[in-house]
Structure formats: C-alpha cells, structure tokens
Amino acid sequence: MKKYILLSAVLLALSGTSYGQWTGPKKKPTEQKEVMYGPLVSAKRTDANMEAFRNYGLGQFIHWGVYAIPGNEWEGVSARGGAAASEWIRSWGGANAPKDWTKTYDNLYKSFSVKDFDAKKWAKQAKDMGAKYMIFTTKHHDGFALWPTKYSDYNISKTPYKKDIVKEVVDAYAAEGIDVYLYFSVLEWNNPDYMGKVPQTTEEKKRFDKFLAYTRNQLLELLDNYPTIKGLWFDGTWDASWKAAYDFTYKLEKEMREKHPGLVIGSRFRNDEYGARHFDSNGNLLGDYEQGWERKMPKEYEWLDGNDWDAVMTIPPNGWGYMKDWSGLYTKTTDDILDMLLNSVSMNGNFVLNFGPDGEGNMHPREDKIAKELGDWMKVNGEAVYGVRHTDLPLSKYGYYTQKGDDLYLTVFNRPVNGIVRIAVPKAATQVPVEAILLSTKVTLEVKHADIGLDLDKNTYYDVMVPNSFSSSRAFVIKMKLGTPVSKADKLMEAKM
C-alpha cells in the first residue's frame, strides 16, 4: 500500500497534471461503440439546480482537514524541500520523510481542536466576496471525515472539537443564501480495504467489495444528513480499482440521483465499461458538467462543445490545503483572479476560488485580503458576472465580453491610451452597441460607428469613448445596450490584384 501511494505521488509529480484533466479540445471518437454504462442524465439539463449552476459565476472551494495542522511542512521540511503537497502530506515517503510519519499523521486528529473555527464567519466572508456557491471537503484522501459518520471511527466526533463541522458549514452558508456542494474523495490511504490495482484474488475482491459498500454508505449518509446540498464534487476516482467497478458506480450514481432529485454531479465520478472517464467512449459527458478544468482554463470557447463547466483555482501555485509559508512563491493577486473569473464566465463557466484554513480554522491573511478586494469589486461590477452568457462577438483585445439579454458587458483589463474602446461587430449583425455607460459610475459614454474600411473585413466597428477624467486602479466594466444599427457599413470598391 505504501509503495503504491508513493508511486502514485511520483507519477503525479512527473506528469505535471492531475489525472483526468485536459489542456485542449477533446478528441472526437471516430466510430461509435455500444456503451451500456454511459450517461444517466440527459445533456444540458434545464431544471432549477442546473440553471442555478449556470448563473453562479463565482464560487468558493474550502480544503480543510487534519492536514491543516502540519500546514504543508513538518520538522522544517516543506513541499519545496521534498514533502508532499499540503493535503497530500500523509503520502510523504522517501529518505527525508519523518520516522513513522504515517503513524504520526494518523494521530493528528487528536489535536484537531479548531478553537477559532466559526462557520458563520466563513459564510459571511464568502457572501461579502460575492460567492454564489461553495464546495466543502467532507473527506480527503487521508480518509478523515469532518462529519460524525457511522461507518468509520476516523471522524470529527473523535477529536477535541467533536461537533459536526459539515453541518455547521452547510447551515451557515445556506443561511447566507449560498448553495453548497460537498467534496468527497473516494480514495482512502488509511483504509485497509482500499487498493489502487484491480482486485485479483478472492480475498482482494472481498476486501474491495467491503470498501465499495462502505463508500456507498457514506455517500448516502451525506445525502440523508444534509438534504439541502445541491451537488457532489468527487475526487480520487482515477485508480484502476475504481475504474473496474463501473457497474457499481453506475448503479450508485443512479441511486444517489433517485434519492436526491436535482443532484448535480461533475464528470469525474465514474467511467464507462471501456475505462473512459469524464466522457464515455462515444464522447458523451458522464455527469452534469465538465470537471477537468482544475488550475487551468480552456483557451477557446469551442473546446467546450457547449458543456457546462467550472474552473477550480488555487491562490498559491498548487496550494489547496493550508500552507504556512507563502514566501518565495508567486501567489495570485486580486487582479489575476478577476482576469480568470471574467475569462471563465465569458465562456459560460463558473470560477471557484480555493481557501485553505489553518488548523485552528483561520483563513490565511492573504486569503482574507483577496476576499475583501474581490468583494469590493463584485459589489460594483457583479452584474457583468452573474447570470451572463458567452457572446459570439470577435474576441476583444481590451478584455472579456459577457451578455445578458440585450445588455452587453465588456470588462476592460487593457485600457486604450487614446480612450477609444473599439467594439468589432460582424457587418451582418442585427444588434449593435447603441448606448453605453460606465457600470461603476453610471456615466453615459458616447458611442460612434467607425466603419474603418479594411479590405475584405467581415466586421464593422463601434467606438465607445472613455473620458480621460475617469480613473480606475482595477478592471472596469462598460455596459452597452444592443439595438438595431442606425447606419450600415459602406460598400467600398474592392481592389483588383
């Protein structure tokens, strides 16, 4: 088991990416197969939960567990010195691992007192930041459950804190009007019945069947305990053992959906009988939205094929759980995060920012700072983020377009020095910008048609004039009203060559 865990960590580090993710357009199957374990739900659901998902815009992820106690380091050695990453630190092995490290880690729960934890404070911060949904880690790869599960003694009730943290989080966020999704890792390092390989012997099959039953029990328990949740966010589903259990996972997804109508599940819960994950062997999405955009985003809208999706993002380079020491690392700024947020929503995705509280329940001071700055921006400009959709206008060099009905938003990150924001519109367009305001000040901006006459150009242009007197230290939003064009692009004589 230990050798397997170490090998998994090494392969993960060498690959540079997490399992089941992608960085380009998905390859289309060249031929169709008979698939019995494909999608259980119709594509692009239109029920209330999925419509809410499409409108969130901004979300919060919280990674929290006993791994917050070491905080990405132990005895002066951090992940940069050879330890495993914060929430992976139990898998630390090799010459520089502390003696009896696994045993030490598995006893950390005894000091998990979380004396500063206040779910209502977290929820208020998320509300002020502008988050519309949150994803909370009920159980990570170490197997420690933050709820008093009946199916394992390795849970919050055995800590000095004792109380049900998952319930406190679910209730506090619901009270603030924020939808809750629960993260659940299938992989469990400390569970003797778990194995990464496909079970071969009768004894191995018996053990893994026991593990599968345990997993089912915990998931149904979560749905029973917290009926207000909107969805489940799965992790640790890449191992050969889980992939070989496709009949079990297919039936379990069906059972969960029947138990909790409207449940939203991402694409990495299960695979088909051929081992295809996220998408079945015919290219159909396995779940309700694409879950492969972890610390990355699509470069082109077309890569998504119209699927719903979200991007989950850390502030330090790969810091999900608490990291004590952020020095010497580039940590994302509020401006970086705003850029990724608007990039996401411009392609019909949600952007989910991760927070990793410390072992006492406090956010990192830099997380507090970013949450405040992001919230200040969202209070003024959130209209360009919530409930918006992709627009088919040519990409803008100034920033990102979003659209809601006949309202077009351009969030400007690159302000032109001449104050003229030029909007490219296809010449055949039936709707063009006819009015514009600065969203932050509501000041009306002049809009002028600029038919600049480039040879063979398929576009015409509308110039929005930003006054020199307007200043902004961050991205700002131009809100435009779309209407019928009052003038047509001139047809000039075509050059003969």
What can you see in these coordinates?
- The protein is of the alpha/beta class and 497 residues long.
- The protein has helices at residues 2-15, 48-55, 101-106, 119-129, 165-175, 202-225, 240-244, 246-259, 334-346, 365-381, and strands at residues 58-62, 73-74, 77-78, 133-139, 179-185, 231-235, 264-265, 309-313, 349-355, 399-404, 407-412, 420-426, 432-438, 444-445, 447-450, 459-465, 476-483.
- It is built from ten helices and 17 strands.
- The strands form four sheets. It has a seven-stranded parallel beta sheet with strand order 7-6-5-4-1-9-8, with helices on both faces. A five-stranded antiparallel beta sheet has the order 10-11-17-13-14.
- β2 and β3 (77-78) form a beta hairpin.
Topology of this structure?
Elements: H1 2-15, H2 48-55, E1 58-62, E2 73-74, E3 77-78, H3 101-106, H4 119-129, E4 133-139, H5 165-175, E5 179-185, H6 202-225, E6 231-235, H7 240-244, H8 246-259, E7 264-265, E8 309-313, H9 334-346, E9 349-355, H10 365-381, E10 399-404, E11 407-412, E12 420-426, E13 432-438, E14 444-445, E15 447-450, E16 459-465, E17 476-483
Parallel strand pairs: 1-4, 1-9, 4-5, 5-6, 6-7, 8-9
Antiparallel strand pairs: 2-3, 10-11, 11-17, 12-16, 13-14, 13-17, 15-16
Helix pairs in contact: 4-5, 4-10, 6-8
